[in-house]
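Budget justification note: compute hours in this period were largely spent on complex prediction jobs such as the one shown. Inputs:
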Amino acid sequence: MALIVQKFGGSSVANATRVMHVAQTITDTYKAGNDVVVVVSAQGDTTDDLIEKANEINPKGSKREMDMLLTAGEQISIALLAMAIEKIGCPVVSLLGWQAGFHTDRAYGAARIESIKPERLQSELDKRKIVIVAGFQGINKADDLTTLGRGGSDTSAVALAAALHADLCQIYTDVTGVYTADPRKVSNAKKLTDITYDEMLELATLGAQVLNNRSVEMAKKYNVEIEVLSSMVKEPGTIVREVAKMEKMLIRGVTKDTDIARISVVGMKDVPGNAFKLFSSLAAKNINIDVILQSVGRDGTKDISFTCARANAEQAQELLEDLFSDEGAVVSSDTTVAKVSIVGAGMQSHSGTASKMFGALYEAGINIGMISTSEITVSVLIPKEDADKAVAAVHRAFFG
Amino acid sequence: MALIVQKFGGSSVANATRVMHVAQTITDTYKAGNDVVVVVSAQGDTTDDLIEKANEINPKGSKREMDMLLTAGEQISIALLAMAIEKIGCPVVSLLGWQAGFHTDRAYGAARIESIKPERLQSELDKRKIVIVAGFQGINKADDLTTLGRGGSDTSAVALAAALHADLCQIYTDVTGVYTADPRKVSNAKKLTDITYDEMLELATLGAQVLNNRSVEMAKKYNVEIEVLSSMVKEPGTIVREVAKMEKMLIRGVTKDTDIARISVVGMKDVPGNAFKLFSSLAAKNINIDVILQSVGRDGTKDISFTCARANAEQAQELLEDLFSDEGAVVSSDTTVAKVSIVGAGMQSHSGTASKMFGALYEAGINIGMISTSEITVSVLIPKEDADKAVAAVHRAFFG
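Corresponding output:
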């Protein structure tokens, strides 16, 4: 017998049929002798519908009232899911974020969990009840409702698993696990049995939309074992944990991100502080930058290129033109690029991983723009039109 | 400056336009220098939609989870209304039932308010904020959400007015006040300036659908002054209070109820206990009876007739046939009847009120079946087809 936290997203409970299906998954786990705590999001489009209602009335409503509004969404889904479990005939109780003991700071719309006081929840478990908890929400010191912001329900589930010392935190998604590449694009993509937190973080950052980063960071911090699995297909998923089983794999996955732009500033004065001026001004506007390349230009100048989200490209270009055009620098942006990355803790102890990747791209006839490496990743910038071909070529080189 | 509690029903906040209109009414009251507490119901069909969602999954879900589900409806409306008031630029905060201090018993679906602890609410008022409170809901000793049952938001408003010692509790409805007869049916119906609690209770019981009886009873108990007024038409409504202004009016209104049936048991044995047996068996099935007439029949028998809601007629007839047909009694039911009543505390000190009513009906050629009187009402049973004509005739006799 184990204590298992299960998390289901909004699409998993979008209608009555899906709610009943999820209830079946939960009660199967319960009937196998486990204690089960379930974290659930708002149904399907509920959150978007509520935001639209608010915008019709006041697009600039306070975040406090927005949180009051949005937390109603999970309240509806926990009650419906509890009723579905009652129908199957298992003992169940639904709890709102505050009833489950989620105490947060005061940052409405993006609150951080400060503590979880699970006494009530534990007492329900002690009665052998299935406990359904509203994800994404908590309560602050003023006794007001707060939401945890994007990906909040994943974070709720992992935090709860940590607080309850759960044996496993199952995150049910629309994919059957974490793959070596996007299985819709790469036909022989392989599902990973397990993966480390750091690898998962890199994969998420580099474009794999499986788990929210904040929840993986929290899982790493509290050593919560996560299983990523499908809410529709009944098969084992991918386990995320600190010490992954040795699989003799150099890398764990190949990902792409096509939603980026390359910004280049050519001909800046090569004086101290210019790079700082550039990146601090971007940071002040909350523009996150990724791959950076600096090279010496002609006649005592230097060139800096970097990538950022495509949505920020125009703003970044204007900002840098204001800063550097006086000294003769030319700023350009290019949104026809993509980033392809390999991720894997295995490459730390192996040389030649990067060159194997570059060789695969060369053989596929793909030109590499910029290169960036970390301990467990290698990323290259290539033409966007070649992205799928590049992922396939690199995947073939490593996974055959 | 006064402290005013305002209550708006679901249709008053059914869409963005109406929410903005209600926000304007509230802020006008606030800007006139008053402290304002607002109780609001769930938007339009929200509650019915949520019930339908639940029925799709489990028509026999527990009441505890049903209350968890339904209380989300008011949570949505308080947040939206608060945002509308923010748009107008007045300070505002929305509070759920439990945040406003509504403590109830454990009867999910039909909870009774045990106490109101308005410290949080009072502290928001002290900051000169408009406070929007979710009607219909509270919290029980287990820290679980409860609903107050039908008419709950009216009750929330009156209870809050009592707890805060408010100067006035305004109940906004789709009518402009309490009339001497239904203004859609009787062209010269007059709006009452004021009315006593007892008169209001009788009017409500006798078919006028303006105020929920439970809230009037509570208002009477705690001496809360209520104003019934329109959420759409800006004009003074009708004040409900203990000592009504002397208006030299014998009666306050004429009402009809066409949703009734007359049940007759003819030829019961005239032995002690038969009447008790009859009415206790109806009470055991939760069939409320109204006008009762008992007369001596032939040969040591007696006849009992009474009225009940039309929906209960069939069940009542079957029940009584089982009980009394053995002793030769005949049970019949008649659903072609209507009850017309006059209500007014003034008639206590005037003789001739009943005969004036009977005279008006006689002149209109309407036959009276049964008669029932209380201190402040006279009711007659007449053919249903004559109901509107009867109301008009009686109204003319008393109001010209």
